[in-house]
Amino acid sequence: MFNQRSLISPLFLSFALVVFTASATPTPAVPRSEPTAANNAGLAIPLRKRSGLANSNGVFDADKAKLDVVFTHNKHRQNMLNYLSTQGSFGSSDLWIPSSDCSSSTCSSKSKYDSSASSTSEAQSGTFQIQYGDGTTVSGPIFADDVTVAGISVTGQHFASVTNDSISGPFDGILGMAYSSLSNLRSTTFFETAINQSAVSNKQFSFYLASNASELYMGGTNDQLYTGDIEYHAVDTNPGYWKISGWNVISDITTIVDSGTTVIYGPTAAVKTFWESVPNSKALDSDPGFYSYPCNQTPEVSFSWGGQSWNISAATFSSGSTDSTSEYCVGAVAGQDIGFGPSTWLLGDSFMRNVYTVFDFGSDQLGFAQLSS
């Protein structure tokens, strides 16, 4: 049995919520609201502190920004290439953890799985492998075993025990949270297995992201973290993303919401147009695609999918000041062409920290709610 009490904390949570707008003359999506209800049947799992692009002094860290751009670009570009070539290879639905046989230097400080120490371990056919756009790779054999994630236990869960891990970072592995149809392992995700085995009584999981005390809630919602009704939208599950139809002030765009991305990335030309409308904004010469603005003049930015407008707060819009004495801040909207085409926007933590997000497998729907004050 593979039992990792705090598995969620060191794992990088991987999922993609894809939101498509309608055509250039869109019909607004009709959201459905459900009243707040106490739901204590699930399990609240604390997440590690979220790290932004500012250093400890509140100054924009150019090196962090460059790494975030490279990681985000490579992850999504390679995921798209993989999906196009294999019809379902996004990696957002798989669980992998380093093997005790991993000799890579990047494995040295990570939690590991030892199949020989588990009486319930069963080797599976095939090999799991992902190669990212920057050349980093993850590969290893596939196993089925009893798995416990932060107190939720399932049997016969398929996962990869990677023997080659060239990815450095403060996480052990990946816990995919998208639909199972995207799985490289060709098996159900951990959460869907938990649903099928009645390990959770509610078919929802929810995210609360903050600078401190972030939380993944498996098996429902934590009603202490949001207020009012949850605005739900029906999910188009093909090919397996959390994808909803809606509209925005900019028509004909695709929006991906990703907890593994720090800021909001949009096509270079569209982002340039956006910042041209912000008074006194400036492009950063040192970091192409990023822009600065007067810290006391934060632009109003919001997203809507046919219902409520979800505003980006001034605190989450700022990625830090340009230097320790500057009155200019770096904005969380940056221009990067990440490989999905000229109309795709990627909404990371800078968006998700403003909403409580509910993913509902039972009704194939996605919900947003206002955060509790």
Automatic annotation (TrEMBL):
The keyword Disulfide bond applies. The keyword Nuclease does not apply. Disulfide bonds join C102-C107. Residues 1-24 form the signal peptide. It comes from the Eukaryota. InterPro entries: Aspartic_peptidase_A1 (IPR001461), Pepsin-like_dom (IPR034164), PEPTIDASE_A1 (IPR033121), Peptidase_aspartic_dom_sf (IPR021109). Keywords: Disulfide bond, Hydrolase, Protease, Signal. CDD domains: pepsin_like. GO terms for molecular function: aspartic-type endopeptidase activity. GO terms for biological process: proteolysis. Residues 71-369 form the Peptidase A1 domain. Belongs to the peptidase A1 family. This is Acid protease.
